[in-house]
Amino acid sequence: MTTSRTRISKAVIPAAGLGTRFLPATKATPKEMLPVVDKPAIQYVVEEAVTAGLSDVLMVTGRNKRPLEDHFDRNYELEQVLRDKGDGTKLARVEESSDLATMHYVRQGDPRGLGHAVLCAAPHVGDQPFAVLLGDDLIDPRDPLLARMTQIQEQHGGSVIALMEVDPASIHLYGCAAAAPTGEDDVVKVSDLMEKPSADEAPSNLAIIGRYVLDPAVFEVLRKTQPGRGGEIQLTDALQALASDPSLGGPVHGVVFRGRRYDTGDRGDYLRAIVRLACEREDLGPDFRDWLRSYVSEEM
């Protein structure tokens, strides 16, 4: 099978998870809609895709995810109220989310893992390469990871995964890559992948983070992939098959990311992400940093 070199325009965002780590806040509110400063986490992810040139976005959702669709849809009543009040600033912010991208939605149905969620996107994606963005990882827009990944995919074909060096003691929390250097400092050639290995089993400290650019050949591999850890179809297993046998759909490369990443996947990191982003905002940062210094000095 030849690798695909088509320019990438489609992004897939799996958003069917239950968000149990944030209960009770996520009992009736999708975790993707939890605010990070003053925007829901999912909007940062869509903005990242659009900034990288991916204007066609498919969300793979599940039950109780209707607020995601509502957020990216028009709210004519609210817009009219703001227009009548002459509040152009708030009106622009409301309209921003509905004008970001061409949005599509598909239901995953059974929550059978990330690999299954990606497979649900096959009819929409078709036979062209596409990106997958996980909502728990927010990438700072000043560090254009996804644009770099699409560049590497267009150069080499196949698939590209995002990697980050982590403390070896933490590698069991991630998928892990065995990789060899290339002629580029931030690019490696992936030969093997393991899902959440122990520190003793891990082939490196290169952890997979939530950005992928995938050749459409991954769909056929996913259809043949048996459920793995947790009884779920693991995307890592399909990528491992592609890395082991490039004839299935081209090579697998990794981009080693050394930029700013905000993890909203657990409560502590979610709070730290909010503080970091608020501190860096021009409109909020100065006052917030002053308050934070005062608060920390009092608590010490």
UniProtKB/TrEMBL annotation:
Its EC number is 2.7.7.9. It comes from Streptomyces daliensis. InterPro entries: GalU_uridylyltTrfase_bac/arc, NTP_transferase_dom, Nucleotide-diphossugar_trans. GO terms for molecular function: UTP:glucose-1-phosphate uridylyltransferase activity. It is an enzyme of class 2 (transferase). It catalyses: alpha-D-glucose 1-phosphate + UTP + H(+) = UDP-alpha-D-glucose + diphosphate. GO terms for biological process: UDP-alpha-D-glucose metabolic process. Residues 10-274 form the Nucleotidyl transferase domain. CDD domains: UGPase_prokaryotic. It holds the Pfam family NTP_transferase. This is UTP--glucose-1-phosphate uridylyltransferase. Belongs to the UDPGP type 2 family. Keywords: Nucleotidyltransferase, Transferase. It comes from the Bacteria.
